[in-house]
Amino acid sequence: MRSFTVLQGLAAPMDRANVDTDLIIPKQFLKSIKRSGFGPNLFDELRYLDQGEPGQDCSGRPVNEDFALNQPRYQGASVLLARENFGCGSSREHAPWALEDYGFRCLIAPSFADIFYNNCFKNGILPIELDAAIVDRLFQQMYANEGYTLTVDLERQVVVTPEGEEIPFEVDAFRKHCLINGLDDIGLTLESADAIRAFESRWQEQSPWLFGTLK
Amino acid sequence: MSGQTLYDKLWQNHLVEQRDDGSALIYIDRQLIHEVTSPQAFEGLRLAGRKPWRVDANLAVPDHNVPTLRDERVGGIAGIVDPVSRLQVQTLDDNCRDFDIMEFEINDQRQGIVHVVGPEQGATLPGMTIVCGDSHTSTHGALGALAHGIGTSEVEHVMATQCLVQQKMKNMLVRVDGSLLSGVTAKDVVLAIIGKIGTAGGTGYAIEFGGEVIRALSMEGRMTVCNMAIEAGARAGMIACDDKTIDYVRGRTYAPKGEMWERAVEAWRDLHSDDDAQFDRVVELRGEDIRPQVTWGTSPEMVLPVDGVIPDPAAAESAARREAIERALQYMGLEPGMPITGIKLDKVFIGSCTNSRIEDLRAAAAVVRGRRVADSIKLAMVVPGSGEVKEQAEAEGLDKVFTAAGLEWREPGCSMCLAMNSDKLGSGEHCASTSNRNFEGRQGFGGRTHLVSPAMAAAAAVTGHFVDVRDWQEAGQ
Ligand code: SF4
Fold first, then answer.
1. For a surface tag, which of A150, A191, B62, B381 has the fewest beta carbons within 10 Å of its beta carbon?
2. Distance CA B399, CA B384 (A)
3. ipTM of the complex as predicted
4. Which ligand 1 atom is at minimum distance from the Cα of B135?
5. Largest Cα–Cα distance in chain A?
6. Ligand 1 binding pocket mutation candidate from B33, B114, B131, B134 (most atoms within 8 A of CB)
7. What pLDDT sits at residue B475?
8. Beta-strand (E) ranges in chain A?
9. CB atoms within 10 A of CB B399
10. Which helix (H) or strand (E) element contains residue A176?
11. Where do the domains of chain A lie, and which CATH numbers do they carry?
């Protein structure tokens, strides 16, 4: 997993409450054999005017010009401003996969659905919960200023606006540690690699028939 | 201090690290891989630039998506008609090649349902920890192993680290003493257990199955029982290792040989619960009380003896239960008070990782030998669990018995157990099935599944409705 320290990124809006995972990535895309490549189908039903199918080339599809992410000013965004209860619905890990693949590394909202919130950390995305009034203010500033860029400093736990205002946020210390060091669950377990190796060599001595047979 | 359960021993043997928060790092000896739950795990490895920790701990085989019709099968992967299935099977081949993992490919003689293949090849051994991205991995516990299903992220985790982060489960003993009546099989035993404790009865537990009846079961029968531990809510089911286990493993392709075999057997002799081991919960059944079982609803706990009648929701002990029964009856198109034997069937499926081993096929063949499938049955199919089972069955002439009776003899795979290939029920069709799940839509949209033993399924194929295979056998003799 990529590590997350300081992110400076263009902000884009997802200006509605209760965005569920089916809206983030519709169910027909779950048949995929891949974990990556969901980016073109992020918010598929909002972004395009036709119905998306897995494996389809999205470049020729009719685009919904009204949808914010299709507007030129938000191209290349990596911070998503959102509203209450973002990521509710099914537990599919495809939702953070799609956001990450699209390019989002940080989500800012007044609240997130529980499972989705967890899944974000597993995929290198930092979800930040801020007071609804503050989120609303960020939305207004973003709409008023093209090229609105936020700096997210995970180490210091602050979001810095273009005016230099620092907004503090909370994050669980353990998750922060994992994100900063780019540790996913696997990375964490690999911190015990020596213990695993020590166990393994003892175990192999004791039960040699369990090793080297399937080759 | 009291003794250890089998589960305690297997856990202790594989404990790499105990952590303060109650979780533990557990070493995994064997990972079995199939095409549906592995692609994202392999891709995860690739994206992170990781390699499998121990290539030789993994064995892959495609099973869920493979076609079972000979004509579609002979063309190998290219012959698979459904492009989504074809891509999944192809992807497994590609991944195994890239990561150097041993795979029995689609038309390899050793290919089959992953839970049939593992024990059959000696890739599943007593005392192992075994995982697979599939909930019926509990099957392998029949050999005195700790085996359970995992999710896709965990598949990747095990590939990369050879470990899983686990919380220890509680211990449950399900003891079945006495003896079974003739015509009653392992499938009936496990359905009766689920009927007694419910589909959530084993949640949070590792179940050990013991007692005279379990010890008297063949290894195939024990696998049938452990296979359905997950249907009782327990991720892992297991049975103590004994002479029968050791005889079963001896001589299998990947089982230890020579002096190594002797050493292994010595270690395996300890794979049982100590006499003074404490279980958190003990459930007891008598073998004599168990009659052939048939599920009537949409959950494996909705099960009755074949001479039972469909329950009346009005008599349910709670409102929630009443609602569940009403919904199930509506989905299944059944009326309260109707005898189980009155259920008319459209299809019969003999197969799946629960009941597709040689003994299962022998039991089914014994029932249909010299008889004909009822005219009202649209399709009756027998799907062997693996290429090895298929070959053995053909050597015994069982395929001829089936085809002469009007059953189709197919190529190995999961088939109509979950209907990911083209073997499906039509909406509203009733099926006597030897598989393990009767959920809504499991065998096809709107399909109605009744779980039974192979002998019961075979008898139902002949009569077109359920019959008590015990009367049947007497009448036939
Ligand atoms: S046979 Fe059925 S239950 Fe068994 S692995 Fe295949 S799909 Fe799963």
1. A191
2. 10
3. 0.94
4. 8
5. 69
6. B134
7. 54
8. 6-14, 79-82, 106-109, 126-129, 149-153, 158-160, 166-168
9. 19
10. helix A173-180
11. 6-183 (3.20.19.10), 184-215 (no CATH)
